[in-house]
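Sequence in, structure out. Go.
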Amino acid sequence: MRRVKKIAVLRANGLGDFIFTVPALTALRETFPDAQIVYLGKDWHRQFLLKRKTLVDNIIVIPPMKGISMDNVYTDDQRQIEAFYKKMQEENFDVAIQLHGGGQYSNTFIENLGASYTIGTKTDNAQPLNEAIPYEYYQNEILRWLEVVSLIGASTKHISPQLTATKDDVNEAKKILGNNKKFIVIHPGATDLKRRWPFKRFARVGDYFAQKGFRIIITGSGDEREIVKNTIHAMTLPADNFYGKLSINALTGLLSVAALVVANDTGPLHLASALGTTTVGIYWCANLINAAPPFRNNSVCLSSWIIHCPICQTDCASGYPFDTPTSSCKHEISFVTKTTVTEVITAAEKMLLRKAVKG
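Output:
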C-alpha cells in the first residue's frame, strides 16, 4: 500500500464498544505515526477524545443515520446525509476503516466516504470492501478490531485497552465527590436485561463494603434512574446517588481514583478496566466470549452459565455464526442470577487485597 496520510475510522455507538477499539486505534497510531486519524462517531466521542489526542487527531460527529448512529427503524434525512458524504469525500481519505459491526449498514457508509482503500468486517448481506474479515458474532471484540487493522499492516503489543485520566477528568470528578474517603463504585445497570444482576444483590455488596468503611457510590445514566434508586433503597447503609451527575470525562476521573468498581458487563466496567482500576465484572456467559478483558491482573470476570430462558426454556445463546444470536424468546429477564453475592464479595476482597499488597 502507498503511504497513508489520512485514515477515517467509524465506530459510532456506546462506551464499551469504543473501549474495545482502543488497541486497534493504538495500532494505527503506532504503525502510521505521521498519518492523520479521523474518528467518525457521536457527540460523546468528541467530548471524550478531544482530550485524548494521542489516539486520534480529529473527531467528526456523524448525522443521525439508520443502522449507524440510530436504530434500524430510523428514517434518514437524505438531504443531510448526502451533504455529509459530499463533505467527507472532500477529506480525501487514503483509508476508511469500518470498526462498527457486521457491515449491513456500515459498509455502505464506508464506501460512500470516497476513500482510496476500505477495510472492515462483513456479513453475507453486507456490501464488499477492498478487504474484509468475516463477521462472526462469537469473537473477542478487541481481537476482532485488531484483526481488521492488521489488513493494512497495523499492529501493537498493547492488546489490552489502555487509557489515562487527565487532570481535568480527575478535578471534575473531585468537585462532585466532595471528600477524599476511599470509595467503591457500583454500576447496577446494563443495556441488555439479560446482563443485569439483580439490584438487591448489588445492594448487599454495597452494604458489606460500607460496613468495612468504604464510601459507596452508585452510578447510572440514560434509563438507569430507577435501578440506581432501587439499589440505594435496598441498602441498609447510606450510599451516594451519582445518577446523571457525571459527564463522560468526570466519569473517567471518578473511575480512575476508585478503590474498586463492581458492575455488570457494561461501558463503565470496561472504561474502569482500561484505566487500570481494579474491577469485578458480572457477565452472561455468552457475552464473556466477546467482551471480557484479555488479562486478569486488575479484573475478575464472574460468569453465569444460563443459556436457556428460565421462563420458556428457549436457547438464547445460539444463532448464525455470522450474526448476533437470535431466538423467539422475548422475556426480559436476568440471565446472570447464578452468580452469587458471596462470589462477588470474595472476588472483590481478593482484588482489594492484591491492590493493597502492590501498594
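Check: The radius of gyration is 21 Å. The CA atoms of residues 128 and 341 lie 47 Å apart.
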